[in-house]
Design a protein that fits this description.
four-stranded antiparallel β-sheet; five-stranded antiparallel β-sheet; alpha+beta; minor pseudopilin epsh fold
């Protein structure tokens, strides 16, 4: 329904008391109600949407936005992948050093030798030590960590075991014929190397 809201100029008649003139003006004006078509049309004008228009995005705008997002993703994806690989390798080298520290601490704590096991075939590392009070020789496995399962990282070492005496110093025994080791953790093109001296000192590169 086409509605044109028009209020003609009203000139109050003369010769009436002031109270009657005010009542007459109210009657003549008769402003449209809130539910009238004119009032609804006036309210729509204040919304800021053109008559007959519709809010939203065009197909071209959506396609341009998707193209820009795909370009940003393609640029950022390689950097994200490299960061993830470097973080996995760094965490693996920290796990190696933490397990070596555990082997030293266990040897000092129980006052007897501990053995650090390095399983390059299955990418595992753990500590074996006799934790019994009487020293019966029954060993317990401590600090077990699987690089393949936890971080998808490869573990390589030139030793299968490292021994530490009751002072936490590297030593040789039947299980560890040689002291010192080179331990490498690698994932794709990223790698960290942990050097263990014959006395048990740890150096990373």
């Amino acid at each position: 329904m086409d509605c044109t809201c028009f209020r003609p100029p009203v000139t109050p008649p003369t010769g009436f008391p002031r109270a009657d003139r005010n009542n007459l003006l109210r009657t003549l004006l008769k402003l449209p109600s809130a539910t009238s078509p004119c009032r609804r049309q006036e309210a729509d004008v204040g919304i800021g949407i053109p008559a007959g228009g519709r809010a939203g995005f065009s197909l071209l705008e959506v396609l341009v936005t998707l193209m820009l997002l795909s370009m940003v993703y393609a640029i950022a994806l390689p950097s994200i992948g490299r960061t993830r690989i470097q973080a996995s390798v760094h965490n693996s080298s920290q796990a190696v050093m933490g397990t070596i520290s555990l082997a030293k601490a266990a040897a000092v704590r129980f006052g007897r030798p501990s053995v650090l096991r390095l399983d390059s075939a299955r990418d595992r590392i753990w500590v074996e030590v006799d934790t019994t009070l009487a020293g019966t020789g029954s060993t317990a496995a401590l600090g077990y960590f699987s690089f393949r399962e936890d971080l998808r990282v490869d573990l390589k070492a030139n030793r299968t075991a490292l021994c530490f005496d009751g002072r936490g110093v590297g030593t040789t025994r039947a299980a560890c014929p040689q002291a010192g080791a080179v331990i490498i953790v690698a994932l794709k093109q990223s790698a960290d190397t942990v050097f263990v001296s014959p006395l048990g000192r740890v150096i990373t590169r």
